[in-house]
Amino acid sequence: MSSVGKRGKPSRKVRLEDIAARCGVSMSTASRALAGEKGVRPEIRAQVMEMAKALNYSIPTSVSGQKIILAASSVAMIDYVRNQFTAQVLQGLHQRAETLGVEIVTRPVSGAKCDIENLRIALEDDSVAGFLFLSIDDENALALSRDFGKPVVLINSDDPLMRLSSVTPCNRSGARIGAEYLQSLGHERILFLMRRGRRTIERRFEGWRDALFAKGIRDFDDLTVEVEDWLPELAAAAIERRIAERGLDFTAVLTAGESLAAGAMMGVQKAGFSVPGDVSVIGMDDLPQAAFYNPPLSSIHVPMHEIGASALDLLLDAVSGNATPARRIELACHIVERHSTAQVRNHQ
């Protein structure tokens, strides 16, 4: 592919992701190679530089010394305290920022109009290159930020109108992978345990539903279990209550988050059944503590560090003028098998 059309005019701007894809490397590696940073093998650096030259890629000037405003929602802050998902994403973000010499300035926001409007003060600061919004998907907040005049990238959320770029795990395919894994073990009655509300979680629900549809299952309302918060004790109570009311009418549980999976295992065990002997349980996220549950939890691994790093790369790509139109980047997930899942057994 050439960036020059038949009449000698550029057909579109070549982006950093084009260079990375052509060279078979990550955006982070391509960025480091073009910036002359350490940690990139000479042959990879030469390949990236040659490809950039061949595609007439305009290498951005150094971003060292610039600031990025990280607006973290109350949802993200609560998760930071309770779990490690947000902490892992932030670790990847800050490591990447340190490598590039970029300062991250965190500002907690509720998503309310006044909070988002207050961020506009930073627009007057020439040292502020752009904004990262962490777990913010309130439509009013997104509407206010679409005309900021400086790049905005969403982390762990997305813009339904595709005006703002975003980076998330591929929640839909991740949940489908988990459900299909359970199906491969012979499970047909698979509960989905979730807390509704955020679009990212709805994508996980859709992935579970996709796996059921593929097996010809259309009536699944009785397989959805909802809780009001992400607390393990609420998940345990919901599972224990269902078993008390309906008996063990399922053989597996897929949860929309790791804390709910921990609760689901507790609920099954409190009801007098075993995991995975009677019920298999699989979570999503693969947080570090997953390996230490009893039994160790099978989970869908979400590349949390890479989400943070990729979001910063995407934002800085926009700062350099190479990020139009807006993009939605979804990072692939994979299953980690531990001891909370097993082949279905006959309960008759």
Poorly predicted segments: 1-11
CATH superfamily of the largest domain: Response regulator
Q: Order of helices and strands, N to C?
A: HHHEHHEHEHEEHEHEHEHEEHEE
Instruction: State the CATH architecture of the largest domain.
Output: 3-Layer(aba) Sandwich
Helix content: 40-55%
State the domain count.
3
Q: How many DSSP E strands?
A: 12
Q: Beta fraction of the residues?
A: 15-25%
Number of helices: 12
| Shape verdict | globular
Give the SSE map:
Blueprint: H1 16-23, H2 27-35, H3 42-54, E1 67-72, H4 74-82, H5 85-100, E2 103-108, H6 113-119, E3 128-134, H7 139-145, E4 152-155, E5 165-169, H8 171-184, E6 190-194, H9 199-214, E7 224-226, H10 232-246, E8 252-255, H11 258-270, E9 280-285, E10 298-301, H12 304-319, E11 328-331, E12 334-336
Parallel strand pairs: 1-2, 1-3, 3-4, 4-5, 5-11, 6-7, 6-8, 8-9, 9-10
Antiparallel strand pairs: 10-12
Helix pairs in contact: 1-2, 1-3, 2-3, 5-12, 8-9, 10-11
